[in-house]
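One such shown below:
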Amino acid sequence: MLGRWKRRGGRGREGDRPDETDRPADRAGASGLPEWADFFGAPDHLARFEDLVREYFRAREVNVKVDDGWVEADDGVKFGLTNVGQVCAQAESDDWERIITEHFDGIRAQMDEHKRFREELTTYSAVRERFAARLWDRDRVPDTFVKILTIEAAPDLLAAIMVDSERSAGSIPIEAFESWGVDREEVMAQALDNVARMEREAKAVRLGDERTPEVYLIQGETMYGAALALMLERFPQTLSPHGTLVSTPVRNVAVAMPIRDAHSAEVLGGFIGMTLHMEQEGPGSVSKRVWWRRADDWLEIPYEATKKGELRITPPEEFKQMVLGLGE
């Protein structure tokens, strides 16, 4: 069930609790904002957002530090700010306090339930029907991911295996997984089967019309919807003998473009641009990466977005040879 894939550089980190998809704020953009917070548009908007986050915890007598896209309590518990920040940035400023309150109240309730479900993890059969695969870009995972069960689904794309319930979802500690005596392939297969069931109403909807490139949006109803990218056989219109361009920009969406002819490959830049825009806007950003998928083989197509908004794409040699073959 796991795909075979080829890596082009890069190294990964793994960590603990997948409550947020967040990026580090280690660079400032042209707006003067850290990279993770570009969507706020102006430094004063970010400052107000961070003040409201501090006020939420202050009102509950919890000491926190807000910095670099994270809020960290004195006991070391950390929460990412990208998702809730993206939601606020797309809402009226008068709604920000309510959004922040609902967000962190929900996380606190999940943590309480998470403590209860840990007792169930002692038995594989008790939780297997609730497994689900939540996708993360390898460059974004918290350092503590080494403590939970993750599986590499594609180059630099990790699936955190979650135990899902109606009100919350929790990650699986490595020690619990190891006590079950099953392999990762079996767990991943079960998780994807469960996601397929959760997202059984999902459809691949073509964007535009016959005059535009054949791009499909596969949108789920849950935070696991991006994992539909790992089961494109459910959507045969997205498949081609020459492969499919695939991306997972946000947590409930997969994007696919089957390569039918040379023209399909020529619009690679447009596909990358759409992926990058969706990932930046969020909410629930996963990855800006783009892959070329052929059956179970995944190959990343590296690119760089310049400050001027230009794309520098460096397709792997195999992809270039395939495109040349289409033109013959």
